[in-house]
C-alpha cells in the first residue's frame, strides 16, 4: 500500500537525494494538456502534469493518481516514453536548496475531457504542436513522445 510521508521528512529527502516522479503527456481530441505551475519547482512555466511516486506505489498507479489529482482527468496509459531528469534551483518550501528528480514519462489518453485543476496549477491549455517558448525539458519529452506525428 502506498502512503504519503510527513512534510519534514520530505524536505530532508529533497535536500539530500533525487526523488522519483512520473510526468504525464495527456492526449485528447483537444491536443496535449499542459498546466501552468503556481509552485516551485518550475513555478510560472507551462509544464506536464505529474509528481512523485509513493513508496510501494507502482509507476502506472502513480500515473493514474497524478493525472486525476492534478487535472481531474481519468486516463488510459498508452505507453511509457522513457526516463529523464530535472534539476531545479528552487524547492516547494523555502528555496534554501534545489530539487533533483528522476522522471519516468508516459503518454496517456484522456477518458473524459473536462479538466479540473488542483492547487498546483493556475491554468491549463491544450496544444497541438511543440511551442518554442516551452521549457527544454517539456519540449524534449513531447518530441520523444511522438504525439504530434
Would you give an account of this structure?
By secondary structure, this protein is α+β, with helices and mostly antiparallel strands. It has a single domain (about 5-145), classed as Alpha-Beta Complex (Nucleoside Triphosphate Pyrophosphohydrolase), CATH 3.90.79.10. Helices cover about 20% and strands about 35% of the residues. The chain is built from 3 helices and 7 strands, in the order αββββαβββα. Strands 1, 2, 3, 4, 5, 6 and 7 form a 7-stranded mixed β-sheet that branches. The longest helix is centred in the middle third of the chain and has 13 residues, at about 60-70. It is globular. It starts with 6 loop residues before the first helix and ends with a helix. The model has no long low-confidence stretch (mean pLDDT about 95).
Summarize the structure.
The chain has helices at 7-16, 59-71, 136-145, and strands at 19-28, 31-37, 46-47, 50-52, 75-88, 99-110, 121-127. With 149 residues, the chain is an alpha+beta fold. The chain has a single domain (7-145), classed as Nucleoside Triphosphate Pyrophosphohydrolase (Alpha-Beta Complex), CATH 3.90.79.
Amino acid at each position: 500500500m502506498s502512503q504519503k510521508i510527513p512534510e519534514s521528512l520530505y524536505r530532508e529527502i529533497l535536500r539530500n537525494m533525487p526523488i522519483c516522479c512520473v510526468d504525464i503527456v495527456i492526449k485528447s481530441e483537444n491536443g496535449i494538456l499542459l498546466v501552468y505551475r503556481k509552485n516551485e519547482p518550475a513555478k510560472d512555466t507551462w509544464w506536464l502534469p505529474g509528481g512523485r511516486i509513493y513508496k510501494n506505489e507502482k509507476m502506472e498507479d502513480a500515473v493514474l493518481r497524478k493525472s486525476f489529482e492534478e487535472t481531474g482527468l481519468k486516463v488510459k496509459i498508452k505507453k511509457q516514453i522513457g526516463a529523464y531528469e530535472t534539476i531545479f534551483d528552487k524547492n516547494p518550501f523555502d528555496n534554501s536548496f534545489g530539487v533533483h528528480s528522476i522522471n519516468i514519462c508516459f503518454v496517456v489518453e484522456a477518458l473524459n475531457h473536462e479538466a479540473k485543476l488542483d492547487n498546483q496549477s493556475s491554468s491549463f491549455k491544450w496544444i497541438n504542436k511543440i511551442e518554442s517558448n516551452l521549457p527544454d525539458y517539456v519540449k524534449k519529452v513531447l518530441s520523444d513522445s511522438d504525439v504530434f506525428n
